[in-house]
């Protein structure tokens, strides 16, 4: 799929493709409302619309990403509303039948708040600065019977994500896995990752996982 990608906007990569593949297998009911968190170019928002969502909201803290998503949705003629802001701002509004999320998850030793394009991947010393917040609000964003699909690196703690989602009352499991070579960002941090005990000495691959979380429908 051809997409416009302005400078500084996250380029669809292995994690995007893995999540799109999980969406294609998820058998999500058509006609619902979908939310794409950390939308980037809008690739997953467009995939959700093509999978049958009647409407899609795509959020990102990057204004460039919001513009890119809006333009790409228009080019591909799908019902996507691009919205600037944090996903937590949507808590308390109308819930969603489908939530897709490819949040920042790369561990980072710099304690400063990430800026610019670094916001697309830097996520604190454990890679969970955004993931922990996401897991906390997902039960509030999902409608009854709704499904969430979240992709991240195993370096961030797959079991931690599962425990947090289950603790919020969701049914959660890993539905996709793929081992990939380190990209440029992780390669540049390999020594720090080793010193921090996040990878084994000489390790230059990571496992990407897609976690599915379902909110039970209330018995009729």
What does this structure look like?
This protein is of the alpha/beta class and 220 residues long. It has one domain: Rossmann fold (3-Layer(aba) Sandwich). It is built from seven helices and seven strands. Strands 3-2-1-4-5-7-6 form a seven-stranded mixed β-sheet. Helix 1 runs parallel beside helix 2. The longest helix has 14 residues. The chain is globular and about 50 Å long. The N and C termini lie far apart (41 Å).
Strands, helices and their partners?
Blueprint: H1 14-25, E1 33-37, H2 43-50, E2 55-60, H3 63-76, E3 80-84, E4 96-101, H4 131-141, E5 142-153, H5 158-167, E6 171-181, H6 184-188, H7 190-195, E7 205-214
Parallel strand pairs: 1-2, 1-4, 2-3, 4-5
Antiparallel strand pairs: 5-7, 6-7
Helix pairs in contact: 1-2
Descriptive terms for the model:
single chain; 220 residues; alpha/beta; Rossmann fold; 7 helices; globular
In short:
The protein is an alpha/beta fold and about 220 residues long. The protein has a single domain, classed as Vaccinia Virus protein VP39 (Rossmann fold, 3-Layer(aba) Sandwich). The protein contains 7 helices and 7 strands, in the order αβαβαββαβαβααβ.
Following the backbone from N to C, one meets helices and strands in this order, namely: HEHEHEEHEHEHHE
Query: What is the end-to-end distance?
Result: 41 Å
Annotation field: number of helices: 7
**Arrangement of strands in the largest sheet:** 3-2-1-4-5-7-6
Level-2 CATH architecture: 3-Layer(aba) Sandwich
CATH superfamily: Vaccinia Virus protein VP39
What is the total tally of β strands? Answer: 7
**Strand content of the residues, in percent?**
25-35%
